Amino acid sequence: MATVVVAGTGLAAAAQDTLTVGANIGNIPWEFQDESGAFVGFEIDLVAAVADRLGAEVETVNIPFNGLFSAVQSGRIDIATSSITITDERLESVTFAQPYYDSDQSLTALAAGPKSLEEMEGRVVGVDTGSTGDMWASEHQGEYGFADIRRYEGLAPAMLDLTAGRIDGYISDIPALQYYVVDKPELAVVERIPTGETYSMMFAKDAELATQVNAVIDDLKTEGVLAELHEKWFGVAPDEGSSTVSVLPMPSLD
């Protein structure tokens, strides 16, 4: 556990003095630890910016991805982040603020290994437990003939097994993998898997905090703060019209 103290500006009234945020630390470049052990990443910075506007402090708790859902539903945490995809199924039991990133899944393999999903027939694929990649691989296992699906709690252990040859490919969010393999020539993102996902912060069902945070994200988009974070972490400006720069309504099932 790590505590990040954020000085409030008083621009909005927070419902509480401290926001407890659950995140799957190791989810590069969204939330991970730097050489000093500090929590850093796109969503770490975004949560800090939101808390600043709400006049709150942030307590970040490291929780495996699959545990974030029960943690936010039970009230153990106030907000969950970890490049969480908004889905209708999830909206039945939780609430999301407006999206702030557009994404797809991807297949990553050894540079000398499979070059496509078609070449994964009879091979072992890794995924993060409970993730969109897990759901996609399970749904398409028969189509692509995966011999097995191995589930991991985060990118780091999956990458260790991929590098060691214990799995043949890894299906996960494309921005995280593109960032991860930049300085690792032995690995390659070999195929983009179009899924049309959008990411956001997750809250307990109908939580008032979700509405407050959504209003802050409106301002952060309008003022260009989110665009600056995108350029900081991905090295390029966000696409015009993307959810990183467009003010959008809160997702709903209506």
Q: What would your notes on this structure say?
A:
The chain has 254 residues and is an alpha/beta fold. The protein has two domains: 2-102 and 198-234, 3-Layer(aba) Sandwich (D-Maltodextrin-Binding Protein, domain 2), CATH 3.40.190; 104-196, 3-Layer(aba) Sandwich (D-Maltodextrin-Binding Protein, domain 2). The chain is built from eight helices and twelve strands. Strands 1, 2, 5, 6, 7, 8, 9, 10, 11 and 12 form a ten-stranded mixed sheet that branches. A hairpin with a 5-residue loop joins strand 3 (32-33) and strand 4 (39-40). The longest helix has 15 residues, at 208-222. The N and C termini lie far apart (37 Å). Residues 1-14 have low confidence and may be disordered.
The rounded distance between the terminal residues' Cα atoms is: 37 Å
Helix percentage range: 25-40%
Number of strands: 12
The CATH class of the largest domain: Alpha Beta
Which range does the strand content fall in?
25-35%
Judging from the principal axes of the Cα atoms, what is the shape? globular
Q: How many helices in DSSP terms?
A: 8
SS-based structural class? Answer: alpha/beta
Q: Do you know the CATH architecture of the largest domain? A: 3-Layer(aba) Sandwich
The CATH superfamily of the largest domain is identified as Periplasmic binding protein-like II
Biggest beta sheet attributes: 10 strands, mixed
Can you tell me the CATH topology of the largest domain?
Answer: D-Maltodextrin-Binding Protein, domain 2
The low-pLDDT segments are 1-14
